[in-house]
Amino acid sequence: MFRIARLCLSTGSCSETSLGTALPCRALWTSSVCQHAEPAVSDQPIEASTSPAHALGAIRTTWTREEVHQVYDTPLLELVFRAATVHRMHNDPRMVQRCTLLSIKTGGCPETCTYCSQSSSWRKETGLKAEKLMDLEEVYQAAVRARDSGSTRFCMGAAWRGPSQVGKGQWNRVLDMVSRIRGLGMEVCTTLGMLTPEQAKQLREAGLTAYNHNLDTSPEYYSKITSSRKYEDRLDTLDSVRKAGISVCAGGIIGMGEGSMDRVGLLHQLATLPEHPESVPINALVAVKGTPLQDQAPPSALDIIRCIATARITMPRSVVRLSAGRLNFSRSDQALCFMAGANSIFDGDKLLTTPNNERNEDLEMFETLGLRSRPAFLPYASGGETSNGGCTLPEEAHGLQQAAL
User: Which parts form a coiled-coil structure per UniProt (predicted)?
Assistant: First the structure.
């Protein structure tokens, strides 16, 4: 009788397979019976508990650091397999969002982030001059071009400590940018530094979809990355964003000299926020000449894949964004990132001040891998009910379901 070899996730009968509580075994199927072979090797099994709360793919914010460490340390191919399983439980694995990032105010930032070329602390070494905030029409036209190229999310970054450092005129210009770009039918994200609750509320009223504020690294390693703010400042801004009803975009940067436990610490911090971020960017450091981290070797693609897979397992419904540093990855590297759970990229030839993959290359990759673009304003399953990125304007809702098909 014809037999088909397959991987069966089960500790008992194959007819009672549970992805959440089982350890993998190799088995042979016939038309009527599943014949078990020896258990597959798994040095670091993720699921040691039979509790539904600890099942593979369960949504929870009660991860311990040791649990996240066990996930992170799983042998890579097994980790990717489990992450891919979770990804398919909660997401369409073919759907990847294309986002565009624009620096609307470059250089002159008073913060001391050692990875960032825009810090005024190393402006002499980097040679990057501070620029004025871009004009409204210039930014609007950039958003139009991005939309016409297929991006559904437009992100704007300003090299500020926060809006509190600038005048009312500049702040109102940013709010106008948000409103006009939202009118294009695009999701709108900003990264403007630390926010007060009132500033977050104003951004929400202007139509902001999401706010990016990365935690960068673990709490323990953070003081080695910047001396101008505390980790708690980052968490306070995320709290203000969430309470204002704005979608939270928070991730980190890999390859800044941190150890594996710092990467675990970052992912643990994100996975144990009161609600998982709707978006989790995983950035690979792009070392910029003149910054304190200029000689830092970039992380490997496999380092990023491991982080993406861990993020997917611990935050099953979040959009995991394959962000900075993708230019150094082959198409095969990126394919493994998508398999491990990444479902968003930044397209366009520039990310703030560093180079990025060309759009034509990404379109070819989408075609080769059978990916399709995520439409704007599909609700984000992760996060809070009032900040899931869903439609709030009638014209955005029109035809959304058809666009998603």
Answer: none
Per the structure block, which two tokens stand in for 337? Answer: 């990132």
Question: Rounded to an integer, what distance in angstroms lies between the CA atom of residue 326 and that of residue 323?
Answer: 6
Read off the tokens for 158. Answer: 């300003």
C-alpha 199/C-alpha 216 separation (Å) is 22
pLDDT digits (tens, 9 = 90+) for 187-230: 999 999 999 999 999 999 999 999 999 999 999 999 999 988 89
Q: Which two tokens stand for residue 230?
A: 């505390």
Strand arrangement of the beta sheet that strand 4-9 belongs to:
4-9, 24-29, 34-39
In this structure, what token pair is assigned to residue 116?
A: 């960032």
- Which residues form the catalytic set? 109, 113, 116, 155, 189, 249, 321
Q: Considering all CA atoms of the chain, what is the largest pairwise distance in Å, rounded to the nearest integer?
A: 78
Global pTM exceeds 0.85: no
Domain at 95-404, CATH homologous superfamily: Aldolase class I (3.20.20.70)
Domains of the chain: which residue ranges?
95-404
